[in-house]
Amino acid sequence: MSGGKKFTATTKVSGKTDTIRHRGPAPRCLFQGDDTVLIGREITVLGGGIAGLAVSIALARRGAQVTVLEQAEAIREVGAGLQISPNGVVVLRALGLGDALAECGVRAEGVALRDYRAGRAVVQLDLTQTPVPYYFLHRADLIDMLATAARAAGVKLRLLHRATGLELTDDGACLTTDLGARLKTPLLIGADGGRSLVRARLNGVAKPFFTRQVAWRAVVPADGDAAPVATVHMGPGRHLVSYPLRGGADLNIVAVEERAAWTDEGWYHRDDPDNLRAAFAGFAPRVQAMLARVDKVHLWGLHRHPVAQHWHKGPAVILGDAAHPTLPFLAQGANMALEDAWVLAAALAAHDTTGAAFAAYQAARRDRCARIVDTASKNARNYHLSFPPLRFAAHSALRLAGAMAPDRMLGRFDWLYGHDVTTQTP
Question: Model-level pTM?
């Protein structure tokens, strides 16, 4: 690619086109191997979230002509906080976003587990010892970072495109939108979330089950200095996680309660903050102080979805939550999406046929993602011990392990945080 080229990203809203031009040299190819395989190849990505934007950047910077279809009227995410662990950081760095991440994220120093009633420390993991940093980040900031990079790479972002139907043929995929339009593409990537249209076409409609757990999510102003630590207050049948965002100005809260009452999936359901405060009334004074500042909160039911059996068929493939929705107890949803995006782009560049690329991508990702999903599911049980003697014994064991062998405590996560997809060839 020659320097001085001008890249154009086009966004359509209600028939109008917003053209954003990136002046200067073409984005440097950040990949190894044969960089000519994807040049000029037309690819459509369904979904403008973390997975969809990340894979669009990875593909566009290899020369593919990428279009992202998003059903919303804007590429944005109001959301709340998320954690980008080292295995996700290496992907953002490889995409050229390391500096942007360091600028808008809070570099984490640790994870602290505390007893619910008095807030007494159980154990703390030292994250400053990881070779690659760990960050706390507002989801909206990550989406904005990825969308900006996608536009600069020449990705076309087309809004208000809600897909309602999908046909797969030998020569491509055809999407039908809610307005009746038919959009054809030679290669379709489904990054359309847990209720994925593409996943349903490949696997049939999955039937998730309610885990009998619900979660509240809120962001509140930080009261004084917020330590760069993810704090988990663990209590009988419930736990609460908090960590700082945006330079410590805000505090992210995720609170989980076990309950039999059914609650709908999707974190966008509003709830009364008093319900949250009542559920955690017996928790430590620090928790009470945080919850007193909550004036807006969302509630959603936590449902367990199976990892998809089939990740691809013909010209279509899925990634992120469309392939492996996970519970939020290991903070890996965004990180798995970033890993998927890199591996899928690398596989498409490394193989001569789409089928071979998709098969290599699934082979590289499915077992790891299944392990992460399973580990996240088990974490909730560890946080929610209700029988007092069992909880006392478990917490005492953690305190002893943390005091005697702190490095081994963090080393239990080497398989997760030390995994670097950017150094591997699928």
Answer: 0.87
